[in-house]
Amino acid sequence: MINVMKVVVIGCTHAGIAAVKQILTYYPEADITVYERQNMISYLSCATYLHIEGTVAALADARYAEPEEFVKQGVQMKTDFDVIRVNAQEHCLLVQDLLTKKISRDSYDKLIVTTGSVTAIPAISGVENPKVLLCKTYDEAHDLCSYAADEQSVAIVGGGYVGVELAEGYTAAGYQVLLIQKPAHLLNGYVEPAIGDKIMQLLIRKGVKVLTDTVVTSFQDAPDDQLLITTDQDSYHVDMAAISAGMIPQTDLLAGQVKMAKNGAILVDDYLQTSDPDIFAAGDAAMNHNNPTDDSVYAPLVSSAVRQGTVAGINVGERRMRTLGTQVTTGMKIFEHTMACTGLTVAAAKAANLNVGHVEYTGTYRPSFMPAAHPITVELLYDRNNRKILGAQLFCAHDVSQAANTVSALIQNGGTIDQLALLDMLFSPNFNEPFNYLNLAGQLAVKQEHGYWRS
Asked: Catalytic: which of 12, 14, 185, 341?
Protein backbone atom coordinates (compact mmCIF):
# COMPACT_ATOMS: atom_id res chain seq x y z
CA MET A 1 0.00 0.00 0.00
CA ILE A 2 1.39 3.42 -0.99
CA ASN A 3 1.74 5.89 1.86
CA VAL A 4 0.33 9.12 0.40
CA MET A 5 1.68 12.35 1.87
CA LYS A 6 -1.10 14.70 2.92
CA VAL A 7 -0.13 18.35 2.53
CA VAL A 8 -2.26 21.22 3.77
CA VAL A 9 -1.59 24.77 2.60
CA ILE A 10 -3.12 27.59 4.64
CA GLY A 11 -3.53 30.72 2.56
CA CYS A 12 -3.52 30.87 -1.21
CA THR A 13 -2.24 34.14 -2.53
CA HIS A 14 1.23 34.32 -4.04
CA ALA A 15 3.36 32.07 -1.80
CA GLY A 16 0.57 29.50 -1.49
CA ILE A 17 -0.01 29.30 -5.23
CA ALA A 18 3.73 28.93 -5.90
CA ALA A 19 3.97 26.16 -3.30
CA VAL A 20 1.02 24.19 -4.71
CA LYS A 21 2.48 24.35 -8.23
CA GLN A 22 5.72 22.79 -7.01
CA ILE A 23 4.00 20.12 -4.94
CA LEU A 24 2.04 19.06 -8.03
CA THR A 25 5.31 18.87 -9.98
CA TYR A 26 7.59 17.14 -7.46
CA TYR A 27 5.04 15.09 -5.49
CA PRO A 28 2.26 14.24 -7.96
CA GLU A 29 0.84 11.54 -5.67
CA ALA A 30 0.43 13.92 -2.73
CA ASP A 31 -3.00 14.65 -1.27
CA ILE A 32 -3.20 18.47 -1.34
CA THR A 33 -5.76 20.60 0.48
CA VAL A 34 -5.78 24.39 0.39
CA TYR A 35 -7.68 26.61 2.83
CA GLU A 36 -8.28 30.23 1.84
CA ARG A 37 -10.50 32.82 3.55
CA GLN A 38 -11.29 34.68 0.34
CA ASN A 39 -13.43 33.26 -2.44
CA MET A 40 -10.72 34.04 -4.98
CA ILE A 41 -6.95 33.80 -5.15
CA SER A 42 -3.91 35.52 -6.67
CA TYR A 43 -4.87 39.22 -6.54
CA LEU A 44 -1.85 41.46 -7.15
CA SER A 45 -2.51 44.34 -4.76
CA CYS A 46 -0.17 46.68 -6.65
CA ALA A 47 -2.91 46.84 -9.27
CA THR A 48 -5.11 48.90 -6.97
CA TYR A 49 -3.50 52.21 -7.84
CA LEU A 50 -3.21 51.17 -11.49
CA HIS A 51 -6.96 50.64 -11.57
CA ILE A 52 -7.61 53.96 -9.85
CA GLU A 53 -5.56 55.84 -12.45
CA GLY A 54 -7.14 53.89 -15.32
CA THR A 55 -4.18 51.78 -16.47
CA VAL A 56 -5.88 48.52 -15.44
CA ALA A 57 -9.51 48.35 -16.54
CA ALA A 58 -10.79 46.09 -13.76
CA LEU A 59 -9.37 44.82 -10.48
CA ALA A 60 -10.21 41.26 -11.52
CA ASP A 61 -7.75 41.61 -14.41
CA ALA A 62 -4.92 41.55 -11.86
CA ARG A 63 -5.62 37.94 -10.89
CA TYR A 64 -3.34 35.39 -12.52
CA ALA A 65 -4.80 32.10 -11.24
CA GLU A 66 -8.22 30.68 -10.44
CA PRO A 67 -9.17 27.92 -7.96
CA GLU A 68 -10.64 25.82 -10.75
CA GLU A 69 -7.20 25.44 -12.34
CA PHE A 70 -5.97 23.56 -9.27
CA VAL A 71 -9.21 21.63 -8.78
CA LYS A 72 -8.71 20.13 -12.25
CA GLN A 73 -5.32 18.85 -11.05
CA GLY A 74 -6.80 17.13 -8.02
CA VAL A 75 -6.23 19.82 -5.40
CA GLN A 76 -8.98 20.22 -2.82
CA MET A 77 -9.52 23.98 -2.93
CA LYS A 78 -11.38 25.15 0.17
CA THR A 79 -12.06 28.81 -0.55
CA ASP A 80 -14.26 30.73 1.87
CA PHE A 81 -12.78 28.59 4.65
CA ASP A 82 -11.11 29.92 7.77
CA VAL A 83 -8.57 27.88 9.73
CA ILE A 84 -9.46 28.57 13.36
CA ARG A 85 -6.77 26.55 15.08
CA VAL A 86 -3.64 24.53 14.34
CA ASN A 87 -2.47 21.81 16.73
CA ALA A 88 1.09 21.16 15.61
CA GLN A 89 1.65 18.37 18.11
CA GLU A 90 -1.38 16.43 16.89
CA HIS A 91 -0.98 17.46 13.23
CA CYS A 92 -4.59 18.60 13.01
CA LEU A 93 -6.64 21.67 12.14
CA LEU A 94 -9.97 23.16 13.15
CA VAL A 95 -11.62 24.88 10.18
CA GLN A 96 -14.85 26.75 9.50
CA ASP A 97 -16.82 27.05 6.31
CA LEU A 98 -17.49 30.79 6.22
CA LEU A 99 -20.64 30.33 4.13
CA THR A 100 -22.38 27.61 6.16
CA LYS A 101 -20.58 28.36 9.46
CA LYS A 102 -19.99 24.62 9.85
CA ILE A 103 -16.87 23.69 11.84
CA SER A 104 -14.86 20.58 10.99
CA ARG A 105 -11.47 19.00 11.60
CA ASP A 106 -8.70 18.05 9.24
CA SER A 107 -5.23 16.55 9.55
CA TYR A 108 -1.91 16.82 7.76
CA ASP A 109 1.45 15.15 7.35
CA LYS A 110 3.06 18.38 6.16
CA LEU A 111 1.75 21.90 6.61
CA ILE A 112 2.71 24.98 4.60
CA VAL A 113 1.68 28.27 6.20
CA THR A 114 1.30 31.10 3.71
CA THR A 115 -1.19 33.19 5.66
CA GLY A 116 0.29 36.48 4.50
CA SER A 117 0.01 39.80 6.27
CA VAL A 118 -2.53 42.44 7.19
CA THR A 119 -2.30 46.19 6.91
CA ALA A 120 -0.93 47.75 10.07
CA ILE A 121 -3.69 49.92 11.50
CA PRO A 122 -2.16 52.72 13.54
CA ALA A 123 -3.58 53.53 16.97
CA ILE A 124 -5.31 56.73 15.89
CA SER A 125 -8.53 57.97 17.42
CA GLY A 126 -11.38 57.45 14.95
CA VAL A 127 -9.47 55.09 12.67
CA GLU A 128 -12.56 52.85 12.61
CA ASN A 129 -14.50 55.60 10.78
CA PRO A 130 -16.12 54.16 7.61
CA LYS A 131 -14.47 56.91 5.57
CA VAL A 132 -11.06 55.44 6.52
CA LEU A 133 -10.30 52.45 4.29
CA LEU A 134 -7.61 49.81 3.75
CA CYS A 135 -6.30 48.61 0.40
CA LYS A 136 -4.44 45.27 0.60
CA THR A 137 -6.86 42.46 -0.26
CA TYR A 138 -9.10 42.24 -3.32
CA ASP A 139 -12.20 43.01 -1.25
CA GLU A 140 -10.49 45.98 0.44
CA ALA A 141 -9.32 47.30 -2.93
CA HIS A 142 -12.82 46.88 -4.35
CA ASP A 143 -14.32 48.80 -1.43
CA LEU A 144 -11.68 51.50 -1.72
CA CYS A 145 -12.27 52.02 -5.43
CA SER A 146 -16.07 51.89 -5.09
CA TYR A 147 -16.08 54.40 -2.25
CA ALA A 148 -13.74 56.74 -4.07
CA ALA A 149 -15.89 56.82 -7.20
CA ASP A 150 -18.15 59.58 -5.85
CA GLU A 151 -15.47 61.51 -3.92
CA GLN A 152 -13.08 64.28 -4.90
CA SER A 153 -10.38 64.42 -2.25
CA VAL A 154 -8.41 61.74 -0.45
CA ALA A 155 -5.80 61.60 2.28
CA ILE A 156 -3.23 58.81 2.29
CA VAL A 157 -1.62 57.96 5.60
CA GLY A 158 1.82 56.41 5.05
CA GLY A 159 4.50 57.36 2.53
CA GLY A 160 5.94 53.95 1.72
CA TYR A 161 5.46 52.11 -1.57
CA VAL A 162 1.70 51.71 -1.30
CA GLY A 163 1.15 55.28 -0.16
CA VAL A 164 3.24 56.84 -2.93
CA GLU A 165 1.64 54.65 -5.59
CA LEU A 166 -1.85 55.51 -4.33
CA ALA A 167 -0.93 59.19 -4.38
CA GLU A 168 0.06 58.88 -8.02
CA GLY A 169 -3.04 56.88 -8.91
CA TYR A 170 -5.51 59.28 -7.32
CA THR A 171 -3.71 62.33 -8.73
CA ALA A 172 -3.72 60.90 -12.24
CA ALA A 173 -7.45 60.26 -11.84
CA GLY A 174 -8.10 63.88 -10.96
CA TYR A 175 -8.42 63.72 -7.17
CA GLN A 176 -7.08 66.24 -4.70
CA VAL A 177 -4.50 64.24 -2.75
CA LEU A 178 -2.98 64.75 0.67
CA LEU A 179 -0.09 62.40 1.55
CA ILE A 180 0.94 62.23 5.20
CA GLN A 181 4.19 60.58 6.25
CA LYS A 182 5.36 60.21 9.86
CA PRO A 183 9.12 59.94 9.10
CA ALA A 184 11.00 62.91 7.67
CA HIS A 185 11.36 61.39 4.16
CA LEU A 186 9.20 59.36 1.79
CA LEU A 187 10.14 55.73 1.21
CA ASN A 188 12.52 56.04 4.15
CA GLY A 189 12.94 52.28 4.51
CA TYR A 190 14.05 51.85 0.91
CA VAL A 191 15.98 54.88 -0.34
CA GLU A 192 18.33 57.58 0.84
CA PRO A 193 16.81 60.96 1.76
CA ALA A 194 18.11 62.49 -1.50
CA ILE A 195 15.97 60.17 -3.63
CA GLY A 196 13.04 60.32 -1.22
CA ASP A 197 13.09 64.10 -1.56
CA LYS A 198 13.23 63.89 -5.36
CA ILE A 199 10.09 61.76 -5.29
CA MET A 200 8.42 64.21 -2.92
CA GLN A 201 9.20 67.13 -5.21
CA LEU A 202 7.85 65.18 -8.18
CA LEU A 203 4.59 64.53 -6.30
CA ILE A 204 4.33 68.19 -5.32
CA ARG A 205 4.85 69.30 -8.94
CA LYS A 206 1.96 67.03 -9.91
CA GLY A 207 -0.32 68.64 -7.35
CA VAL A 208 -0.02 66.36 -4.32
CA LYS A 209 0.14 68.05 -0.93
CA VAL A 210 2.89 66.16 0.92
CA LEU A 211 3.36 66.37 4.67
CA THR A 212 6.43 64.65 6.10
CA ASP A 213 7.53 64.48 9.72
CA THR A 214 3.82 64.67 10.53
CA VAL A 215 1.74 62.50 12.87
CA VAL A 216 -1.99 61.91 12.38
CA THR A 217 -3.71 62.17 15.77
CA SER A 218 -7.41 61.68 14.92
CA PHE A 219 -10.12 61.10 12.32
CA GLN A 220 -13.53 62.69 12.88
CA ASP A 221 -16.73 63.26 10.95
CA ALA A 222 -17.01 66.88 9.83
CA PRO A 223 -20.30 68.80 9.58
CA ASP A 224 -20.03 68.97 5.77
CA ASP A 225 -20.06 65.14 5.57
CA GLN A 226 -16.32 65.17 5.06
CA LEU A 227 -13.59 63.59 7.15
CA LEU A 228 -11.63 65.83 9.49
CA ILE A 229 -8.02 64.69 9.88
CA THR A 230 -6.09 66.20 12.75
CA THR A 231 -2.30 66.04 12.87
CA ASP A 232 0.31 67.34 15.29
CA GLN A 233 0.72 70.28 12.87
CA ASP A 234 -2.76 71.22 11.61
CA SER A 235 -6.14 69.81 10.52
CA TYR A 236 -7.50 68.99 7.05
CA HIS A 237 -10.85 68.20 5.44
CA VAL A 238 -11.06 65.40 2.87
CA ASP A 239 -13.75 63.09 1.52
CA MET A 240 -11.97 59.88 2.54
CA ALA A 241 -8.67 58.43 3.75
CA ALA A 242 -6.62 55.36 2.89
CA ILE A 243 -4.28 53.69 5.37
CA SER A 244 -0.94 52.38 4.09
CA ALA A 245 1.12 52.19 7.26
CA GLY A 246 3.02 48.95 6.69
CA MET A 247 2.32 45.24 7.02
CA ILE A 248 1.99 42.88 9.99
CA PRO A 249 2.56 39.12 9.53
CA GLN A 250 -0.58 37.06 10.11
CA THR A 251 0.78 34.15 12.14
CA ASP A 252 -1.49 33.79 15.19
CA LEU A 253 -2.30 30.18 14.27
CA LEU A 254 1.22 29.08 15.15
CA ALA A 255 1.81 31.31 18.17
CA GLY A 256 3.77 29.36 20.77
CA GLN A 257 4.20 26.38 18.44
CA VAL A 258 7.10 27.48 16.22
CA LYS A 259 9.87 30.01 16.65
CA MET A 260 9.07 33.54 15.54
CA ALA A 261 10.83 36.87 15.14
CA LYS A 262 9.98 39.83 17.34
CA ASN A 263 7.51 41.14 14.77
CA GLY A 264 5.63 37.84 14.75
CA ALA A 265 6.95 36.54 11.44
CA ILE A 266 7.88 32.87 11.40
CA LEU A 267 11.56 31.96 11.46
CA VAL A 268 12.55 29.49 8.74
CA ASP A 269 15.76 27.79 7.70
CA ASP A 270 17.30 27.73 4.23
CA TYR A 271 14.71 25.14 3.15
CA LEU A 272 11.76 27.22 4.44
CA GLN A 273 11.26 24.74 7.27
CA THR A 274 10.18 26.11 10.64
CA SER A 275 11.35 24.88 14.04
CA ASP A 276 8.69 22.16 13.60
CA PRO A 277 10.05 19.82 10.90
CA ASP A 278 6.56 19.16 9.51
CA ILE A 279 5.64 22.83 9.11
CA PHE A 280 6.94 25.16 6.41
CA ALA A 281 6.25 28.87 6.04
CA ALA A 282 6.62 31.33 3.18
CA GLY A 283 5.61 34.76 1.97
CA ASP A 284 4.50 37.61 4.20
CA ALA A 285 4.08 35.20 7.12
CA ALA A 286 7.78 34.31 7.17
CA MET A 287 11.17 35.90 7.62
CA ASN A 288 13.70 35.74 4.79
CA HIS A 289 17.47 35.43 4.62
CA ASN A 290 18.95 38.86 3.95
CA ASN A 291 22.10 38.44 1.86
CA PRO A 292 23.68 41.88 2.47
CA THR A 293 23.63 41.37 6.26
CA ASP A 294 23.72 37.54 6.37
CA ASP A 295 20.79 37.75 8.77
CA SER A 296 16.99 37.57 8.69
CA VAL A 297 14.75 40.27 7.26
CA TYR A 298 11.02 40.77 6.91
CA ALA A 299 10.29 41.43 3.23
CA PRO A 300 6.54 41.41 2.47
CA LEU A 301 6.88 41.51 -1.31
CA VAL A 302 5.18 39.50 -4.05
CA SER A 303 8.57 38.69 -5.59
CA SER A 304 9.82 37.33 -2.28
CA ALA A 305 6.60 35.40 -1.67
CA VAL A 306 6.65 33.51 -4.97
CA ARG A 307 10.30 32.54 -4.51
CA GLN A 308 9.77 31.37 -0.95
CA GLY A 309 6.58 29.53 -1.85
CA THR A 310 8.41 27.79 -4.68
CA VAL A 311 11.20 26.61 -2.37
CA ALA A 312 8.74 25.48 0.32
CA GLY A 313 6.77 23.42 -2.19
CA ILE A 314 9.92 21.80 -3.58
CA ASN A 315 11.16 20.87 -0.10
CA VAL A 316 7.93 19.74 1.56
CA GLY A 317 8.65 16.07 0.87
CA GLU A 318 12.44 16.13 1.04
CA ARG A 319 15.13 18.76 1.42
CA ARG A 320 16.00 19.39 -2.21
CA MET A 321 16.83 23.07 -2.60
CA ARG A 322 18.14 25.93 -0.48
CA THR A 323 16.70 29.41 -0.73
CA LEU A 324 18.92 31.99 -2.40
CA GLY A 325 17.82 34.64 0.07
CA THR A 326 16.90 38.19 -0.82
CA GLN A 327 18.30 41.64 -1.43
CA VAL A 328 14.77 43.10 -1.03
CA THR A 329 14.89 44.35 -4.61
CA THR A 330 12.00 46.66 -5.46
CA GLY A 331 10.94 49.28 -7.93
CA MET A 332 8.15 51.64 -8.85
CA LYS A 333 7.06 53.82 -11.73
CA ILE A 334 5.78 57.21 -10.65
CA PHE A 335 4.64 59.82 -13.17
CA GLU A 336 6.88 58.40 -15.93
CA HIS A 337 9.86 58.26 -13.57
CA THR A 338 11.47 55.04 -12.36
CA MET A 339 12.75 54.42 -8.87
CA ALA A 340 14.44 51.07 -8.31
CA CYS A 341 16.51 49.81 -5.41
CA THR A 342 18.17 46.76 -3.96
CA GLY A 343 19.97 45.93 -0.74
CA LEU A 344 20.49 48.24 2.21
CA THR A 345 20.15 51.92 2.93
CA VAL A 346 22.88 53.71 4.87
CA ALA A 347 20.69 53.66 7.97
CA ALA A 348 20.07 49.91 7.66
CA ALA A 349 23.77 49.21 7.09
CA LYS A 350 24.72 51.20 10.18
CA ALA A 351 22.05 49.40 12.20
CA ALA A 352 23.70 46.14 11.13
CA ASN A 353 27.06 47.48 12.39
CA LEU A 354 28.58 47.47 8.91
CA ASN A 355 31.35 49.85 7.94
CA VAL A 356 29.29 51.39 5.16
CA GLY A 357 30.66 53.50 2.35
CA HIS A 358 28.35 55.59 0.20
CA VAL A 359 28.69 57.47 -3.09
CA GLU A 360 26.17 59.31 -5.24
CA TYR A 361 26.59 59.38 -9.00
CA THR A 362 24.67 61.98 -10.99
CA GLY A 363 24.80 62.45 -14.74
CA THR A 364 22.69 61.56 -17.77
CA TYR A 365 21.72 57.98 -18.44
CA ARG A 366 22.98 58.27 -22.05
CA PRO A 367 25.16 60.79 -23.93
CA SER A 368 23.96 64.38 -23.75
CA PHE A 369 23.98 64.68 -27.54
CA MET A 370 21.09 62.21 -27.64
CA PRO A 371 17.50 63.45 -27.30
CA ALA A 372 15.82 63.00 -23.91
CA ALA A 373 19.12 62.26 -22.16
CA HIS A 374 17.41 62.30 -18.79
CA PRO A 375 19.35 62.96 -15.58
CA ILE A 376 19.98 59.92 -13.41
CA THR A 377 20.89 59.55 -9.76
CA VAL A 378 22.58 56.40 -8.48
CA GLU A 379 23.15 55.87 -4.77
CA LEU A 380 25.72 53.08 -4.22
CA LEU A 381 26.51 51.51 -0.84
CA TYR A 382 29.34 49.12 -0.03
CA ASP A 383 31.22 47.59 2.88
CA ARG A 384 34.51 49.46 3.33
CA ASN A 385 36.11 46.45 5.02
CA ASN A 386 35.73 43.99 2.13
CA ARG A 387 34.46 46.31 -0.67
CA LYS A 388 31.35 44.16 -1.22
CA ILE A 389 28.32 45.96 -2.59
CA LEU A 390 25.57 46.43 0.02
CA GLY A 391 22.91 48.26 -1.96
CA ALA A 392 21.97 50.63 -4.75
CA GLN A 393 19.13 52.98 -5.59
CA LEU A 394 18.34 54.62 -8.92
CA PHE A 395 16.02 57.42 -9.99
CA CYS A 396 15.47 58.59 -13.56
CA ALA A 397 12.78 59.61 -16.04
CA HIS A 398 14.05 56.72 -18.18
CA ASP A 399 13.23 53.12 -17.26
CA VAL A 400 16.32 52.02 -15.31
CA SER A 401 14.55 49.29 -13.34
CA GLN A 402 16.65 46.42 -14.67
CA ALA A 403 19.81 48.09 -13.38
CA ALA A 404 18.60 47.28 -9.86
CA ASN A 405 18.36 43.63 -10.87
CA THR A 406 21.96 43.76 -12.11
CA VAL A 407 23.17 45.06 -8.74
CA SER A 408 20.96 42.55 -6.94
CA ALA A 409 22.70 39.70 -8.76
CA LEU A 410 26.10 41.14 -7.83
CA ILE A 411 25.14 41.42 -4.15
CA GLN A 412 23.76 37.88 -4.11
CA ASN A 413 27.07 36.60 -5.45
CA GLY A 414 29.34 38.71 -3.26
CA GLY A 415 30.19 41.28 -5.93
CA THR A 416 32.53 44.17 -5.12
CA ILE A 417 32.80 47.79 -6.16
CA ASP A 418 35.89 46.84 -8.18
CA GLN A 419 33.86 44.33 -10.19
CA LEU A 420 30.99 46.77 -10.68
CA ALA A 421 33.37 49.51 -11.83
CA LEU A 422 34.58 47.42 -14.79
CA LEU A 423 31.63 45.05 -15.27
CA ASP A 424 31.22 44.14 -18.95
CA MET A 425 28.08 45.98 -20.06
CA LEU A 426 26.82 46.78 -23.55
CA PHE A 427 27.27 50.23 -25.07
CA SER A 428 25.11 52.13 -27.51
CA PRO A 429 24.28 55.85 -27.41
CA ASN A 430 20.65 54.74 -27.40
CA PHE A 431 21.10 53.20 -23.98
CA ASN A 432 24.08 54.56 -22.07
CA GLU A 433 27.56 56.05 -22.05
CA PRO A 434 30.61 53.91 -22.97
CA PHE A 435 30.81 53.26 -19.24
CA ASN A 436 27.32 52.45 -18.00
CA TYR A 437 26.01 54.58 -15.13
CA LEU A 438 26.46 51.58 -12.82
CA ASN A 439 30.11 51.35 -13.90
CA LEU A 440 30.52 55.05 -13.17
CA ALA A 441 28.99 54.72 -9.72
CA GLY A 442 31.35 51.83 -9.02
CA GLN A 443 34.30 53.91 -10.19
CA LEU A 444 33.32 56.69 -7.79
CA ALA A 445 33.37 54.17 -4.95
CA VAL A 446 36.77 52.82 -6.05
CA LYS A 447 38.14 56.35 -6.16
CA GLN A 448 36.76 57.01 -2.68
CA GLU A 449 38.67 53.94 -1.49
CA HIS A 450 41.90 55.16 -3.11
CA GLY A 451 41.97 52.86 -6.11
CA TYR A 452 41.43 49.27 -7.11
CA TRP A 453 42.37 46.29 -4.98
CA ARG A 454 45.16 44.12 -6.24
CA SER A 455 43.88 40.94 -7.84
From this structure: 14
